[in-house]
Every structure is written in structure tokens, then in C-alpha cells.
Amino acid sequence: MSIWDYANPKKFMQTTDRLLPFVAVPAGLMLAAGLLWGFFLTPDDYRQGATVKLLYIHVPSAMMAINAWGMMLVASLVWLIRRHHVSALAAKAAAPVGLVMTLIALVTGAIWGQPMWGTWWAWDPRLTSFLILFLFYLGYIALWEAVENPDTAADLTSVLCLVGSVFALLSRYAVNFWNQGLHQGASLSLDREQNMADVFWYPLLVCLAGFVLLFLTLVLLRTRTEIRLRRLKALEARERMA
Amino acid sequence: MIALLARDLRLAVRAGGGFGLGLAFFLIVTALVPFGVGPEGGTLARIAPGILWVGALLACLLSLDRIFALDFEDGSLDLLATAPIPLEAVVAVKSLAHWLTTGLPLVLAAPVFGLLLNLPGPGYGALVASLAVGTPALSVIGAFGAALTVGLKRGGLLLSLLVLPLYVPTLIFGAEAVRRGAGGLDFATPLMLLAAITAGALAGLPFAAAAAIRVNLR
Predict the structure, then answer these.
(1) What is the pLDDT of residue A141?
(2) Number of separate domains in chain B
(3) Looking at the DSSP assignment, which residues form a beta bridge with residue A49?
(4) Which residues of A touch B173 (CB under 8 A)?
(5) Whose CA is closest to A211, among A98, A132, A74, A128?
(6) Residue that wins the pLDDT comparison between A96 and B34
(7) This prediction's pTM
(8) 3-class SS at A49?
(9) 10 Å Cβ neighbour count for B57?
(10) Beta-carbon separation of B148 and A159 below 8 A
(11) How far apart are CA A136 and CA B162, in angstroms?
(12) Contact map slice: A 76-95 vs B, CB within 8 A
């Protein structure tokens, strides 16, 4: 029994069919709990007022926007090295989710920035690199859409994902060089005793976990859809042959 | 390899006229900017570094789909793929040919365009140096994008969507070098970082591009 067993679409479908409720329900519960807790049961920040509550959407979505690309990178590598179709389809399934996460992070950031910085948008390194990440997602999805042969599309998008990762990282540090930012430093890191006051920290943790589970749910669901779509195409092709 | 380079250069110069097109496009962009922002010398001098770099980038983009598309259509790319030289070398030579026909003319003509945009005196050295160091990266990255889209019917628009985000680091360091040069500051740091990007792209991307071509020829 190894992880590669799940490269078999049938096995994958069986397992995820049983697994999905156990991911989806906690995702919904944690998101509901975390967001309600964050929105209604925490005090306003003494400087930021009620806008601090956007934190509970902005930070998790930004985190997932980056991690979704990381997941696509791993899935692309698995496809290129071991040629498991489920892996390529999982990468394809994750891209639109990552795109939406990036968009949510950008939009909530703009809504927060308007009262706090006095501007919807500034050419700040973090904002700019997220905009570039958004463009990378767009290009990746467009390439999937443009190529007709599914195997060719999987190969090309995987190569693009690898090269894109290098350049996305490069852009991230290049924009630091280009302009000093408005955005505050990292709010979350593992090597600090306390990241923020506990009242804000605990609901944020719940939201982060909720977003991770939400991402998992969506990716599993979309991968299953892609596999079914692939099967449907095979059936149609067989019908045409007969 | 030299024969391939000579063939590509001859094709670029003689057939289709792709050779002067990039340069003419660059000229038009530089001529249009003053119409857009007004003819005041101060404003133009301030935005000249950015405009010149963005113009060079777009001029480069314009001729990218020519790198592989024609060879793909008439089947010479299949022959090149089965030729005794590795496909990675073919990609490298073709990028070099692309650079010699678009990048190098831009480097040589850039001071004239700088003059049109009222670029301050100390900026010219930085402009030529940064373009000379940076445009090879544009050609290689573009060759990678062209390799990805070579099999597509209407790949042109997709090509720009794929390639332009990849151009961001090059643009940042290139324009920064010119801006510092124009301000009379030391521009060695951005120039070195730009050279690092070019070196990295030259070393790595031919492999990625060759892999993409193999997939497309399959």
C-alpha cells in the first residue's frame, strides 16, 4: 500500500468518494465557526476599527493562493516524472481555485486598504507580486484551454508551471528591489512566540484551517469532475467507433 | 549549428521582412509616447527609461511567433528534431538568431530613441549596457513561450499572456539600471542582477523549450 495506489483513477474515485464528506463538512463547520467568531465575537482593533475583521478572509485566501500554486507544482512534477493522469488532472483542477483565492486576496486587500492606507491600490511589492501571480494563473488556465490533446496539454502546462514557479519567485524578490512597500511585514510566522493578540489569533487559526479544508474539498471535487469528464469522452469516442 | 544560424539569419533578413519590423515598431512606440503625455522635456526625461524598456520588450514580443511557427508548418522542425544536433542546441541557436535580428538592432538604435525621449546624458551608457545584457534573456524566454504555443492555430495572443509575466524580472532590473544611470547614480547592482537573469535563462530555458517542442511534435 503506497501513495501511488491513488494514481489509479478507480481507486482514487472510491477513496475520495468516502473521504469527501469528512473533508467537506469540517471545512464548512470551521469556516462558519471561524468567520462568525471573527466577525461577531472579537473586539474591534483600537486603531483599525472594524476593518480588522477582513483579516479572517484576506490572510487565509492569500496563503491558499500561494499554496495552491505549490500544490500544482508538485502535481506537475509527479505527472512529468511518473505520468499519473490523476496528478495532471488535480493540477488542472487546482488552478481556478487558486485564481479565485488570489482574486479574493486582492479584492479584500483593496477594500481594507481604502480606509487604512487611503488608496485602493498601491504599487507595493506584495500587491504587485500577487497581481503577477494572478497573471501566471491566467496564463496557465488559458494554456490548458487552448491545447486540444489532453496529454499534450498536461505536458505543456506542467512545463509552464515549473518555469513559472521559478519566475514567480524571481519576480517576488525583484519587486522588493524595485519599490519599498506599504504592506506590513509577515503577520504569521512559525518562529515567533506570539504573532498577534490571542483574541484575534485563535479565530484566525480556525479560519486558516477552514480555508485549507475548503481548498482540499474543492480540488477533490473538481478532480473527480475532471476524471468523470475524461471517462465520458472515452465513452463517446467508443460509441463513435462502434 | 553555424549552418542553422546562417539559415535563420538569411530567412529573417530576406523573406517576410521580420528584420526591420521590430525596430520600426520601437520607433513608432517612442514617437507615440510624446503625443500621449505631452512634449515637455522634463516629463519625457523622467519616464524615458521605462518607456524605452517597455518598448524594447514589446518589439521583441512582436516577432516571437516567427521563431518556430514557420518551421513547424513546413515540417523543417521535425527534421531539426531528428537532426544529429540536440534539440536544446537548436533552440539556443534559434534564440540567438532571434536576438541578432531583433535584440541587437534595438541595442544599437536605442541611443537615438533615447535622444527622442530626452534621456539625460549619463543614462545612455546604462541604456545600451542594460539592453545589451537584458535582451538575450527576452529572446530565450520568448523562445520558450513560442515553443509552448507552436502547435496552436491562433497562439499569438496566448503567447503574449504566457510570456509577458515571465518578462517582469528582466523589465524591473533593466529599467532600474537605466533610471539609476539617468539619475547619475551607480547602476552596477541592477546590471549584475540583470546579467544573472540572462545567464540563468540561457542555461535553463533551452531545456524547457526543447521539452515543449518534443511534446508538440509528438
Answers:
(1) 94
(2) 1
(3) A45
(4) 174, 177
(5) A98
(6) A96
(7) 0.87
(8) strand
(9) 24
(10) yes
(11) 7
(12) none
pLDDT at position A154: 92
Give the per-residue SS3 of B33-66: HHHHHCCCHHHHHHHHHHHHHHHHHHHHHHCHHH
Is B152's CB within 8 Å of A160's CB? no
Q: State the alpha helices, DSSP H only, in chain B.
A: 2-14, 18-37, 41-62, 69-74, 76-82, 87-98, 104-116, 123-148, 156-166, 168-182, 188-217
Closest Cα partner for A156 from B187, B132, B211?
A: B211
Q: Which residue of B has its CA nearest to A167?
A: B166
Task: Determine contact, residues A179/A119, Cβ cutoff 8 Å.
Answer: no
Residue B179: closest C-alpha in chain A: A178
Closest of A223, A240, A220, A238 to residue A21, by C-alpha? A220
> Mean pLDDT across the stretch B121-139?
89
A181: helix, strand or coil: coil
Predicted confidence band at B203 (pLDDT cuts at 50, 70, 90)?
very high
Q: How many CB atoms lie within 10 A of CB A154?
A: 23
Distance in angstroms (rounded) separating the CA atoms of residues A157 and A163: 10
d(CA B169, CA A70): 20
Chain B CB contacts of A175 under 8 Å are: 168, 172
Domain that holds residue B110: 2-217
Q: What is the pLDDT at residue A186?
A: 59
Query: Could you tell me the residue ranges of all domains in chain A?
Result: 23-182+198-241
Decide if A132 contacts B155 (C-beta within 8 A).
Answer: no
- ipTM summary value: 0.85
Q: Give the separation between CA B175 and CA B48, rounded to whole angstroms.
A: 9
- Partners of B35 in the beta sheet? none
Identify residue B84 by its one-letter amino acid code. P
Contact at CB, A146 and B155, closer than 8 angstroms: yes
C-alpha cell at B83: 537532426
Q: Alpha-carbon distance B162 to A135, whole Å?
A: 8
